[in-house]
Amino acid sequence: MRISCSLSLLALAFASQSFCAPLDRAWVGPMPFVEGRTLRPDFFSTLMDPAAWPTVLARADVFKSYLMVLPSDPLPGKTVPQLSDDDLARLAKFFRDHHIKVAFEVGGIRLPPGPMPEHPGQYTADSELHHLRRWLAAGGSVDYLTTDHAVMCNVGAYYVNPALKPPPPLTFDRAIDEQAEYFAIVSKAIPGVKLGAIESLGFWEVEGDGGKVFHRTVPALPEWRFDQYVDQLLAAMKKRGLTLDHFHIDFGYEGVHYDGGGQGLNFGRVLAVEKCCHARGVKTGVIFNAFHDQSAGPIDPAVASRQAHDNTLAYFRGYMAAGGTADNLVIQCWHPYPDQTGPEDSPRATLNIARDIITDPSFPARR
Fold first, then answer.
1. pTM for this predicted structure
2. How far is CA 349 from CA 43, 278, 354, in A?
3. Among candidates 100, 191, 111, 110, which has minimal Cα distance to 145?
4. What is the dihedral of CA 265, 268, 271, 276, to 10 degrees?
5. Which conformational region is residue 108 in: left (phi greater than 0), alpha (psi within -120 to 50 degrees), or beta?
6. In a 3-state reduction of DSSP, which class is residue 213?
7. In angstroms, what CA-CA distances link 55 with 51, 225, 288?
């Protein structure tokens, strides 16, 4: 009886420690690019100016960016990289000084033109580590790496638009195994990095509460089940002594509007994926973003920026009202609007969206 009681108290102590442990809740990832790898003119200067984003800077736990801000090779017609070694060193110091962790979105599996490499996961890891090491050499940290459609970019894209892609070079099962191999290589090169994945929810069959099935949004896709993908990835990673830290949900305003039949926002698919991941011990994140109204043709940038802002806030508030329980709230933009980085009080800025979400009454308290 005394042993059982002691074990119970010990379990409660660990639970208490876990509850009080810092949680990287607020992730911020403004759109860096005008197009391709061309950086927005105000991207670096805004980030380096604390007065341009004081509210977001004070509340952000993680700054998220894309691998393609890091290459040292100049763009065509240029003689210097988009960000110099000195720029990267200053940015790395800035994040250290403000106690902000750093995450990069990476490919995981990206195949070159022509014949497929014998080991696609290793090929991609070697290629991407070349850029990540430049950031590390500048004094930067890589706290999180999240693969962007490592599986569906290579397996599912063909079914979405067969005219643009040749038949998939990888099978579903092989792609998952190569993704796990990629994780094994990068985690050895960057000890302590936390590993995660993104795959758009529209590719999958997702079972929600009461047995309701949210079907893939493109009927030509095979009936791949999301829970099957997660289970296979976890098993492939376990064989390599790895764990999946997080799955970030890419199903923005347009996705939940689609599930709502155009009459409202339905978060059932998002919540079902959250539940599936949490049941397997995987943290979840929801990526909050939205396009502007694309049905109206050419539009004034100020109007488009406001529409993207309002749609993103509607998505965030709807998600919270629906009972979302994501561990990471990821305010990330890859959209053309808002078309400026900052300052955070400008309605034309992506950091304005981040400020308004982080200060929204429904945003969870930081702990």
1. 0.92
2. 11, 33, 9
3. 191
4. -150
5. left
6. strand
7. 9, 40, 18
E strand residue ranges, the chain:
26-29, 33-35, 38-39, 62-66, 101-106, 144-148, 194-198, 206-207, 213-214, 246-249, 283-287, 328-332
Q: How far is CA 243 from the centre of its chain?
A: 17
CA distance 264 to 180: 37
CB atoms within 10 A of CB 22: 8
- What is the spatial distance between Cα 182 and Cα 147, in angstroms, rounded to a whole number? 9
* Neighbouring C-alpha atoms within 13 Å toward the C-beta of 183: 30
- Token readout for 238 is 């376990």
| C-alpha–C-alpha distance, residues 363 and 319, integer Å | 11
Q: What is the dihedral sign for C-alpha 252, 290, 62, 39?
A: positive
State pLDDT tens for residues 57-78.
999 999 999 999 999 999 999 9
Asked if 180 and 118 touch (Cβ cutoff 8 Å), the reply is no
The fraction of the chain above a pLDDT of 70, given in percent, is 94
Average pLDDT score, the chain: 92
Question: C-alpha distances in angstroms, 22 versus 7, 92, 98, 286?
Answer: 25, 21, 16, 19
